[in-house]
TrEMBL record:
Assigned EC number: 2.7.1.156, 2.7.7.62
UniProt pathway annotation: Cofactor biosynthesis; adenosylcobalamin biosynthesis; adenosylcobalamin from cob(II)yrinate a,c-diamide: step 6/7; Cofactor biosynthesis; adenosylcobalamin biosynthesis; adenosylcobalamin from cob(II)yrinate a,c-diamide: step 5/7
Residues the record lists as binding GTP: 7-14, 34-36, 53-56, 64, 83
Active site residues of this protein: H52 (gmp-histidine intermediate)
Name of the protein described by the UniProt record: Adenosylcobinamide kinase
Native source organism of the sequence: Mycolicibacterium doricum
A Pfam family per the record: CobU
Catalysis: reaction(s): adenosylcob(III)inamide + GTP = adenosylcob(III)inamide phosphate + GDP + H(+); adenosylcob(III)inamide + ATP = adenosylcob(III)inamide phosphate + ADP + H(+); adenosylcob(III)inamide phosphate + GTP + H(+) = adenosylcob(III)inamide-GDP + diphosphate
Keywords: ATP-binding, Cobalamin biosynthesis, GTP-binding, Kinase, Nucleotide-binding, Transferase
Top EC group: transferase
Function: Catalyzes ATP-dependent phosphorylation of adenosylcobinamide and addition of GMP to adenosylcobinamide phosphate.
Amino acid sequence: MRTLVLGGIRSGKSQWAEGQLDAAAQQEPVRYMATGASPAADVEWARRVAAHRERRPGRWLTTETTDVPAALREDPTTATLVDDIGGWLTAELDRCDAWNAGSAAPGINALVAAVAAFAGPLALVSPEVGLTVVPATASGRRFADELGALNQRLAATCDRVVLIVAGQPITVKEPW
């Protein structure tokens, strides 16, 4: 089952997704795919990353990558949690210079195709951008527009969509 887990900042979406995927994997290995860079000088960010690592079971394998489509295609059956799609999209927009004139469409299409083809349990954690103010900067609006459109495409591809609000899951789409 492919699940898209949406929520605001600090809503509990990662922790909820970890618990769901751990239960689905039934003691089998789980691949945790971290998409965000870890700036060495950012102490507060390092604490957040450490808290995420500490709560994962020991059998989980961590992969740090911005090439999520390739990693999903490389091993399409191991239970996988991608955390998070917003970090991946930021790296993709950087890579393609899409903040200016470039296009992230090829990478976005590759991600959606890799998710659609994934055969094992998969949880994708992504920020829900529709619950905030319209960003004041052009780059902020570009990110919100791109992530909103990507979340919609992933939701259409996934079997299940869950919105996390204050740590509580609200199922938006259930498999039939």
